Each structure stands twice: as C-alpha cells, then as structure tokens.
Amino acid sequence: xxxxxxxxxxxxxxxxxxxxxxxxxxxxxxxxxxxxxxxxxxxxxxxxxxxxxxxxxxxxxxxxxxxxxxxxxxxxxxxxxxxxxxxxxxxxxxxxxxxxxxxxxxxxxxxxxxxxxxxxxxxxxxxxxxxxxxxxxxxxxxxxxxxxxxxxxxxxxxxxxxxxxxxxxxxxxxxxxxxxxxxxxxxxxxxxxxxxxxxxxxxxxxxxxxxxxxxxxxxxxxxxxxxxxxxxxxxxxxxxxxxxxxxxxxxxxxxxxxxxxxxxxxxxxxxxxxxxxxxxxxxxxxxxxxxxxxxxxxxxxxxxxxxxxxxxxxxxxxxxxxxxxxxxxxxxxxxxxxxxxxxxxxxxxxxxxxxxxxxxxxxxxxxxxxxxxxxxxxxxxxxxxxxxxxxxxxxxxxxxxxxxxxxxxxxxxxxxxxxxxxxxxxxxxxxxxxxxxxxxxxxxxxxxxxxxxxxxxxxxxxxxxxxx
Amino acid sequence: xxxxxxxxxxxxxxxxxxxxxxxxxxxxxxxxxxxxxxxxxxxxxxxxxxxxxxxxxxxxxxxxxxxxxxxxxxxxxxxxxxxxxxxxxxxxxxxxxxxxxxxxxxxxxxxxxxxxxxxxxxxxxxxxxxxxxxxxxxxxxxxxxxxxxxxxxxxxxxxxxxxxxxxxxxxxxxxxxxxxxxxxxxxxxxxxxxxxxxxxxxxxxxxxxxxxxxxxxxxxxxx
Lengths: 468, 223
Hints:
The complex is a heterodimer.
Chain A: H1 8-16, H2 19-42, H3 46-62, H4 64-77, E1 80-85, H5 88-101, E2 106-109, H6 113-118, H7 120-126, E3 130-133, H8 136-144, H9 160-171, H10 179-196, E4 199-202, E5 206-208, E6 213-218, H11 222-228, E7 232-238, E8 242-243, H12 246-261, E9 268-272, E10 286-292, H13 296-299, H14 315-318, H15 321-326, H16 337-348, H17 365-369, H18 376-389, H19 395-408, H20 411-429, E11 434-435, H21 442-445, E12 450-451, H22 458-467
Parallel strand pairs in A: 1-10, 2-3, 2-4, 4-7, 5-8, 7-10
Antiparallel strand pairs in A: 5-6, 6-9, 11-12
Helix pairs in contact in A: 2-12, 3-4, 3-12, 9-10, 16-18
Chain B: H1 3-15, H2 24-30, H3 43-53, E1 57-61, H4 67-77, E2 83-86, E3 101-104, E4 113-116, E5 120-122, E6 127-131, E7 146-152, E8 156-157, H5 160-170, E9 177-181, E10 186-187, E11 195-196, E12 203-209
Parallel strand pairs in B: 1-12, 2-3, 2-4, 4-7, 5-8, 7-12
Antiparallel strand pairs in B: 5-6, 6-9, 10-11
C-alpha cells in the first residue's frame, strides 16, 4: 500500500472539518470505549491475565527464530506449505505463484491487515485474478476503492447512507438504508462467490508453534467460509504472530476481543491445522502459510521491540484523542492511531512519516488500555529522539530549541528575558488577562485564547517571598 | 540465501550473543496454563447464561430421544423449514416421527437447517467447540441459516484450557479445524450496529442433553 503519511497535517485538518466523519468517530468512541471498559470490568483477574499476556508475547520474541522453526516444522508435518517473504512484493509474487500453481481464477478474501500492507488485492487483480473481499467492511471499501481507516472496524468512517449508495450502484437492487437489509444484501451477493471460489485468502491472528496451527478470530463467518469451501487456503501473516501453546493462545484470546470490541469472545475462533484428510468431505486440499518480515525483524533487539507484542486489537486508537479527532486515513498507511504512529515509521522509514511520532499528546491512554502493555508513549518519544538525532526535524524547530538551550545556560539573561516577556504579555492582554492573538503561536490562538502571564515571573515571586 | 535463511539469520543476530535462547520445546511440552478466571461452580448454569447472553437459544432435554421433538418445536415456532442436514452420528434419532426430514451429509449453499453435535461446550464464554472430520463436516454448522447443536451435559467444561486437555486426551492429533462458536454470526461493521446473521447462521439453538448418548446406547454426538 502506498504511504501518504507526509500529508498528515493537511488530511488531519480536513478530517476535523468533516462532519460525517466526526459523527462516525463519536460512535466509535461510545461503542468501543464503553464496550471495552464493561468487558474488562467483568473479567476477574484482568491484571494478572494482562501481565501473563505480555510475557507470552515477550517470551516468543526472545526466541523468535526457535518458535518460527518449530511452527514451520509442525505445519509442514500436517501438509501445509510455509513460505517466507522479506517484503510486500515477495508476498504478492508468492501468492500469485500459488494461484497459478493450482489453476486458481476466483479468490475470496477475509480481512487481513498484512495483505493491506502488501497491496495484495491489486497485485492479484493485475494478474487477471478475480479477488473479492468478503468481510462486510472490507467489501464496502473494495466497492469504494478506499483503504481501511481502522484495523478492526475498517469502514468506521462511512455512514449507512454511504453504504446504501455503494450497494445500490454495485448490486442494481433497490436502495435501502436499513442496516439489517444491507447486511442481508451483502450475504446474498457474496454467498455464490464463496461457493464458486477456488482459493481463500486470510490473515492469521496467531500461529501456534505447538501444533502448527493458524488461529482466526472472526465474527461474520466469512473467515470460516474462506477456509472451508475453496480447495486452496492461503494465510498471509507477519512473522511476529507466533505463540507457543494452545494455553498461551487461550490467554491472549481472553484479552483480544475484550480490548477490541468489548466482546468476551468473538463469534468464531478457528484453529486451522493442515489440509483435509482423504476421507474428509470439506476443507482445503492445499494450505499455504506466507510469513512476512517487511521490517519486523529489524525491530528485534532495539528500543522498539515491545511493539512486536502487538495483537492488533485497536484499543489504542479507540482511546486516542488524536485518532478520535482525525480518524484513520490521515495516518497515511495501513496502521493508524498510536500503534500505527510507531509501526509505520518503523516499517517504511522515519523520513516518509515525519509527523506520525508527533501525532500524539503522549497522554498515556494508549499504554493504559493496551492488553499486552506496550509502552506506546515511550516508543513515540524514542522515534522523536531518533528524528532529532538524524536531523529530520525542520530547520526552524532546531534553531528555536538551540536558542532556548543557549538561553537556559545563561541564567541572568534568562531571568531578565522572562521578566520582560511576562510583563509585555501581561500589558498586551489587558484587563481580561487573555490573549486572542500572538505571533508565532497562531496554532493555539486560532482555536482558543491564551491565558496571559500574571505579570511577574516565578523567580520574582520567590524572591519577594523570601524577603518577607 | 533464501528469504527464509535471511530472516532467521537476522533474528538470531538481533538476539545477540549474550542472551541464550529459551527452550521452546520445554514450554511446549509442559504447556502451562495462564491465570484462569474462576467462573462459579455450576458450569451448566454459567454456560446457559453466557450462551444466551451471546444470543444463542438454549434448551435442555433429559434424553437424546427427546431431541427431535425439541428441534421440531423450535423450527415450527419460528416457521422455519422442516428439512435439515445433519452429522451422521445423529441420524440414528427418530427425526421422522417429529416431522423432520434429516439427511446425513455435508451442507450445500441452500440448506436451511444444520444439526451437529459438539466435542465440548465452554461454560466461561457460552461457547461450542466443534471438531472437523469425516463424520463431522464443518459446513453443517456454517452454511445453513439455522444451526442446531446437541451437547451432552457431561461435555460442558469450565474453560477453554479444560477443553484442550480433553482434546489431547481423546485425540492423538488436532483435527484440521477446531471451531469455537459463540452465538449466531454477526457484524457491526456498518455504524457499529450489531446485526445478527452475517455470512454464517442467523440463529444457534443448543440442546443440552442430560443423559449421555453412550448410556442411551446410541452413537456419541460428541464425535
């Protein structure tokens, strides 16, 4: 997928003015934020389960090659074929080759953010393959030719009227804005596509090293259809998704749906191991698992390693005041919100994502709600530091900070300067004590008044207090 | 060097010389449980509450022989078709007497009702656990709009961890698909409004049978 993160500020500003989007984001806030809070409150022992979950992820990351080898060996023993991909382009080539190898023409796809990372749909379509997204949200996006704006609720930015327009145009049926009717319509349109498909593509929420299984967590049932009906199943996922055992998977499953949507468990959890047996009536004859690196292994052993614990629940974005204000598209790649503000620079490079580490107030809510305890504000701060070290910050900012640093090293000058500025602002503000405009900080004063200093600096007051 | 070798080598390098790799094999062999929330001492009650909370319909039956009548009543009440596709093990029941036409096979796109057993049922979350296999086709619980599951009471376990233990005890290897089902398929993609009946069933009806199929002299529903 094309990275457009350098347009962050412009798109954020546009999205703040978009009333439809603002309504949609408010909905996300009430449903997902409240839903999560209720689901966590109901879970006894949340704290120790969360500690265990973080440790489960860390344990695998400390010995990732060992667990990956073990996973590969188990999966292969059951008839799956494991492929390794360095880059998005590798994934696209591997999947296209698998399709060619099995004479595939029609593909049904379940939601997979890794496939979005690769732009897999477009790559397969370019090879003349018929690819259809079957998750309702992803299907809507495919009709609209748009990327997802949320990793769990990809179409959160659209209203039912938007969906009604898209469906009416694509399905040539009478337009309905009734949500139940829209869902039924999608089911009826997609069911024949499932039945006719040669290949199903899914992601993987977890890979179980113990058994060589792919775990899929879904609600709609499209993931089950994609992995049961077509004769070929391809699961595309990141190398960091391995967990050790079924028990460890279970611990993570207690947190993932609760953190994501406030569900105690998703409707379906599928554990898929190998190909169908000779005497079995359904299930795929061929099972390919594509493991993507694409920058992940580079994070190992660095300050950013904790990011690889991420289980993609989306809680950090649901709770982020910046995401809540601007939505997901402004972030300019697959992963939005705080996790995206770390992952995108880490995967595609800091140069092309200059604003993302700053798209946060560092309020800490994301770390607070993260089910695997990723210290997101620390990681964002680390990326900011890297930007400074690599001279990626604007000239004006660097000059201003250098000037301030010089001033701070000259206490007498600093005290005098502060006194002058405080008095000047006090006079300038007048009796109201508020500044409606101040050159250099119009970003602040454009939206609200700036409270003016009271006229005397802290140093003045302190000195006066001691004299008394 | 292949992508596989490059990636694995990069991971090994990042781990550095200092840190000795942990023994993955040992963790896997022991597969210790994580902290497991206690969910009361009445698994049946908990299962029922949780399943109903996730919008499954739940009923009880004293014996397997009562099941067809219960299913027929459920379908009739909702004016649903009286034709069903079923797991072979359940075909021994007298469906015809209850007015139901049941066939043992994998489901097609237009079957309206699917009848399955369950390997286990998990009280913690009100979840059914189904294993795929030659006699337990996965499509039966997936394609029809109505899924009916016959669960032996003795197969209700407290947690998913207990279900894994049973699976390890009763099966040498994992089946191709282990499917956990918690209510009718649903989506909240449009305006975060929960709508039942996405691509899978619109309704799930669970009948918990007190009297185990084995003691009733019938083939187990928990294949």
